[in-house]
Structure formats: C-alpha cells, structure tokens
Amino acid sequence: MLITKNIKMADVIHMNYFTLSVLNRFGIELGFGDKSVEDVCKKYKVDPDFFLEIANTFVNKDYFPKKHLQTFSVKLITDYLRKTHHYYHKIKVPEIELLIENMVESCYTQKDNMVLLRKFFNDYKNELLNHTQREEEVVFPYTIAIEDAFLNQNPDESVLQMMETYSIDVFENEHDNIEEKLFDLKNIIIKYLPAPKDQKLCNKLLHELFNLEQDLNDHSRIEEKVLVPKIREMEKFIINSFTKS
Ligand SMILES: [Fe+2]
Ligand SMILES: [Fe+2]
Q1: How far does residue 75's CA lie from ligand 1's centre (Å)?
Q2: pTM given for the model
Q3: What are phi and psi of 36, to 5 degrees?
C-alpha cells in the first residue's frame, strides 16, 4: 500500500515504522496529532511530493518511480542524500558500534574473535566515511554546478573546464558497493564466530546490520538510478549547446 498526501502522518508510521528514519532525515518531529502528510510537510517546509516518493521507495523495494524522482531538483535530491549520510554517521554507526562493543565484552572469550569483530567494523566505518566524504566534497558540488549551468543556459567557463576532466560517468564507474562489506560482516557473525553467549544482543546487532544494509541499498539506488541519469542528460545538453564551435 502506497503512502499518499491525504493520510495521517501518524498512520504512515503505523503502516511501517521504518519511515521514522525518513521523517528524521527531513527534520520532521513527532507530535503531529491527526495532521495529514501534506500538512505536516507544509509545516516543516518539505516538498510533499518528494517526501512521498522517498518514503514509498524506502519502505517498498519494488516501488521506484525513477522518472518521477528525476523531475525533482538536484539540490533537493543531494540535500536528502547528504542528510542520509549524516544519519548513518551520527546515528546508525554509533548505535552499531555500541552494540559491537557490548558483544565483544559479553559474547566472546577468545581475544582473536573480539579483535576481528572490532577491526572489521572499524575498517567498514572508515570506508563508509571515505565514500560519503568523496560524494559530499566532489560529486554533489559537481552535480549542483551542472544543474546551475543547465538552468541558467549560460555555463560558466569554469564549469566547461571542469567537465573536461570530470563527468558523472566517472562517478558511476568509481561508485563502489558499500553494502557488500556489511554482508561479509553479517556472515562473520552468522557463520564463523562461535555461538555468542548473549543471543539477544547478537540478534539485535544483526537486525541493525540488516537495516543499515537495506538503507544503503535504497540510498545507492537514488544515487545511481536518479542522480546519475539526470546529470548525464544535463551534461549532454550543455556539451551540445555550448561546446560545439
Ligand atoms: Fe551517498
Ligand atoms: Fe554512494
């Protein structure tokens, strides 16, 4: 069932509590009474159409209106992606880190296992940080410059120069699968480490890892299937209109 503008925001959460993290990214706080999705979005100055598409794709992996998502501005899309990065680094990673520390202390007696688990996640954390940093420092500013040039119909010489050395194809080719390592981490816990002493704690950690993996999948899908083709079209237009003599 798809979320629509007129249903109550409270019901959105009752329908699927995973939407809580989406609300968080849009800066929407709880306490909205019986207000509809549209009214709550208005209150928080959030584009209700964009919110709906993001929330629906987030909770339903078969729902992905690629073409409609591409109609939203690059600023709006990259702003959402940035907020999602922030959510990973400030909320999800520290939560998982704490669970791993608790696991290390209470579940395994062999030092090797503790070191392995801690080190694996620490490496992963650094990899995720490098991945998102590169996007925020290089890729997103580039996409915004391309959108500005496209909308102004008069690209700055600096943008044309930038396009000679960088393009969205470069990003697409170097964009690595950040979810893969999480799959390996889950497997280490599920298959290779000895049975943990605290099963509940272990399940909680696995639950968080599965969630983060799914969230990252959704995030990468927006980068690769929405942002990349949108920018590629704009690049083509700029090249055809402004770089041919
Ligand atoms: Fe990202
Ligand atoms: Fe990414």
Answers
A1: 14
A2: 0.92
A3: -75, 170
